[in-house]
Write a structure and sequence with these properties.
The protein has 228 residues and is an alpha/beta fold. It folds into two domains: 3-106, Rossmann fold (3-Layer(aba) Sandwich); 111-227, Nucleotidyltransferase, domain 5 (2-Layer Sandwich). It is 30% helix and 25% strand. It has a six-stranded mixed sheet with strand order 2-1-3-4-5-6, with helices on both faces. Helix 5 (127-140) crosses helix 6 (161-170).
Length: 228
């Protein structure tokens, strides 16, 4: 499903402009409209945040799977990620900034310096394996977990419980990158080409960094790359 652009019929002209710019599909407000479009690529809603929050509250389950939601104020001045900032909402808000809206982004990743860690892992990896690999990789460059700003991997790992549990424990942002995002990076191809990706660890680290401090290194069933 395309990004759902939700609003009132009286704002149809504005909704058409938004949908055209972001590549979305218009849906007019009804009691169950958020439930009907939930689970799609994302939601952009031109309406008061109070209405949006009350509508999505019963639908929220997990920060890893919830649909990204962005609110736009009635004067079309601001785009505000309300849910799923690290999983599409911030990106939608930034896309809307090209349309003239001011993005109001509050997630911590956008405000602090630090390292970007790219992770690849075997299926069924444990939380402990991820944590040990992270520590070993950081030790290699004389850094610690406190220095990490963001951890990134392929969206093929969205259901990898060991990875999710490890990053949850660390209280760091975990970003799942799409194939086209990973393959846009200028990196040497790896065995990941077998699953249609140029690379996992190196590309994911560099997506939020500028220079590799630790090129991809394997620690058991986990690969780590670190960029600054």
């Amino acid at each position: 499903m395309k990004i759902a652009v939700i609003g009132f019929r009286r704002d149809e002209a504005k909704l058409k402009d938004i949908a055209s710019w972001i590549g979305g599909e218009i849906f007019f407000w009804s009691k169950n409209i958020f439930k009907e479009v939930w689970g799609g690529e994302g939601i952009v809603a031109l309406m008061p945040t109070g209405i949006i929050i009350r509508a999505i509250a019963p639908l929220i389950e997990s920060k890893w799977t919830d649909t990204p939601v962005v609110a736009i104020d009635k004067n079309m001045m601001y785009s505000i990620p309300l849910l799923g900032g690290h999983h599409g909402a911030n990106e939608m808000a930034l896309k809307l900034s090209e349309f003239g809206l001011i993005p109001v982004i509050t997630t911590s990743m956008e405000f602090y310096e630090g390292l970007s860690v790219g992770i690849g892992c075997n299926k069924g990896v444990s939380k402990e394996e991820i944590l040990d690999a992270l520590k070993n990789g950081l030790d290699e460059i004389g850094k610690g977990l406190k220095d990490v700003r963001v951890i990134a991997t392929t969206d093929l790992k969205k259901d990898e419980r060991g990875l999710i549990e490890a990053v949850d424990q660390l209280k760091k942002p975990l970003i799942f990158l799409r194939k086209e995002e990973i393959n846009s990076m200028d990196v040497k191809e790896s065995k990941a080409r077998l699953i249609g990706l140029k690379s996992v660890s190196d590309a994911c680290a560099l997506y939020f960094g500028e220079e590799l401090m630790l090129p991809k290194k394997a620690y058991g069933g986990v690969t780590i790359a670190i960029a600054r």
